[in-house]
Amino acid sequence: QVQLVESGDSSVQPGGSLRLSCEVSGINLEEVNIGWFRQAPGSEREGIACTSLGEVPSWHSDSRFIKGRFTISRDNTRNTVSLQMSDVVPFDTGVYYCVASRLYCGWLHRMYDYWGQGTQVTVST
């Protein structure tokens, strides 16, 4: 059965860096699109990026403050997708989700078939 398991740092100071990992099981990583969403307190879930079958990630048009600081990498051998965050700011605080779909790679969260449990990221002094 397909399962996404997230892990990573939960707290970091402004200007610091952290990495979130999404371990995919039950399906070959090369067969699915992997996306990242986040949800700040009191806000709707927003798309960050989606990488389609190992292609260069597509970044959400509203993520202009993200794509210059965040990167995504795939390790097909370990079936793991990582989100690296650098030069973080308090605005980056929120719950981050890893999502997967065999067919979809966009910004409508309801279109994704599989979700991780979400992991809290807090950026503060």
Q: What are the key terms here?
A:
125 residues, mainly beta, 7-stranded mixed sheet, 4-stranded antiparallel sheet, globular
List the helices and strands and how they pair.
Elements (H helix, E strand, L loop, with lengths): L2 E6 L2 E2 L5 E8 L7 E7 L6 E7 L5 E2 L10 E6 L4 E6 L8 E8 L12 E2 L3 E5 L2
Order of helices and strands: EEEEEEEEEEE
Give the biggest sheet: 7 strands, mixed
Shape: globular
Radius of gyration over C-alpha positions, nearest whole angstrom: 13 Å
Name the poorly predicted regions.
Answer: none
Structure description:
By secondary structure, the protein is mainly beta. Helix content is 0%, strand content 47%. It has no helices and eleven strands. The protein has strands spanning 3-8, 11-12, 18-25, 33-39, 46-52, 58-59, 70-75, 80-85, 94-101, 114-115, 119-123. Strands 2, 4, 5, 6, 9, 10 and 11 form a seven-stranded mixed β-sheet that branches. A four-stranded antiparallel β-sheet has the order 1-3-8-7, with no helix packed on it. The radius of gyration is 13 Å and the shape is globular. The N and C termini lie far apart (40 Å). The relative contact order is 0.31. The mean pLDDT is 92.
Q: What's a quick, concise take on this entry?
A:
The protein is mainly β.
